[in-house]
Design brief:
Length: 383
């Protein structure tokens, strides 16, 4: 930074069976490592080891790393986008684990690992909720006693903020739309998924709520659910709070409805092979995306652009087709050929006669985090 030169990029993943792998580009070399059962700590150590592997010609030493930026899932009412990792922040993150049980334990483990191996680096965090701080009260309040909001900050916060921010800005750059005078619906569709309504550069509503469970059907998260169902489960099935938490966060979504997998690709394949539960799960999945697009078109009073991003949004032409099906009354018309041929690329996929421009924009949350961290670091050095 600030040149935004990419030295390395990649990821470490683990599937439900415990198989884990690192894949990335370090310098000019492609690296793929497979191993059984990476932990977060071990995964980060593998990444750092590849940074300083002489064969990769990437970094000579970990001492070259000045700052580390973490994506932090839940900022609650914190309106700052980027903050320094401190003891008080770590205490706050631990207190928020119940709000984001799939995210904060790994966040905390990652910060500890970086402290161990790069102790000289300034650690910072960019909150996933920050972009949504512009959502008005009428959109973020729940229909519960107001004292719960005033005393306990129970309200919608929204997530995937770095992704929605990036794709909204990027679609304006490539289409010529003025960012501060635009109406954009952004669909981040991955294992976690959300839709955001962005008006004049500001988020005005989003499908996720106080926690990342609300909204769309996801890989293992239930999405929208009647609150009474949770009470019923506890009373009738004698489930504990922890068991209910597990069911809606880790056993629901595509996995729960299909009984096949939390991975969209596996469910899609099973549906194609005649699995009725998988077919039903996908219909629910597509329906909710379409429903939120329609709702947010109403919130925005129309739209200029519809954007698909995230692993599924970028790479599933069928998801985009189903989400846009019969939305021509909103001015949305997909090009069948472009939707298939340009799958996985940054491209416009709307039909020539479409009044709303439809795009695939591969997200780049890391770049947004790097920019936020760089600006924060400049301010901190001045102080």
């Amino acid at each position: 930074m600030p040149e935004e030169n990419h030295i390395a990029k990649g990821k470490v993943e683990k599937d439900a069976t415990g198989n884990a792998w690192l894949e990335g580009i370090f310098g000019s070399k492609e690296v793929i490592i497979n191993e059984k059962g990476f932990s977060v700590r071990e995964g980060i150590h593998r990444i750092l080891s590849e940074f300083i592997n002489p064969e990769n010609e990437c970094l000579k030493s970990l001492q070259e790393i000045d700052v580390v930026g973490h994506r932090l899932i839940h900022g609650c009412r914190k309106d700052k986008s980027c903050v320094e990792v401190s003891d008080s922040l770590m205490e706050y993150m631990n207190s928020c684990i119940s709000l984001a049980p799939l995210h904060y334990p790994a966040n905390i483990e990652g910060i500890k690992a970086v402290s161990e191996w790069i102790p000289q680096a300034l650690q910072t965090g960019v909150f996933d909720t920050a972009f949504h701080h512009t959502i008005p009260e009428k959109a973020f309040l729940y229909g519960i006693p107001l004292k719960w909001y005033k005393q306990h900050q129970i309200r919608k916060y929204g997530f995937h903020g770095t992704s929605h921010k990036y794709v909204a800005k990027r679609v304006c750059e490539i289409s010529g739309l003025p960012f501060l005078k635009s109406k954009i619906i952004s669909c981040h569709l991955g294992n976690g998924a959300s839709v955001a309504a962005i008006k004049n550069g500001r988020s005005v509503d989003t499908s996720m709520g106080m926690t990342p469970v609300e909204g769309l059907l996801m890989g293992t998260r239930s999405g929208d659910i009647d609150a009474g169902v949770l009470i019923y489960l506890q009373e009738q099935l004698h489930l504990t709070v922890e068991e209910v938490q597990n069911e809606i966060n880790k056993e629901g979504g595509l996995l729960g409805l299909s009984g096949v997998s939390s991975d969209y690709r596996d469910v899609f394949l099973a549906a194609g092979n005649g699995n009725k539960n998988a077919q039903t799960a996908l219909e629910v999945y597509y329906y909710r995306i379409k429903k939120y697009i329609g709702a947010y078109a109403a919130v925005l009073g129309g739209m200029d652009a519809l954007v698909f991003t995230g692993g599924v949004g970028e790479n599933s032409s069928e998801t985009r087709r189903k989400a846009c099906d019969e939305l021509d009354f909103l001015g949305i018309q997909l090009s069948k050929n472009k939707n298939i041929a340009l799958n996985g690329t940054e491209a416009e996929i709307s039909a020539r006669e479409s009044k709303v421009k439809v795009f695939i924009i591969p997200t780049n949350e890391e770049l947004i985090i790097a920019r936020e961290v760089f600006e924060f670091t400049k301010t901190k050095l001045k102080d």
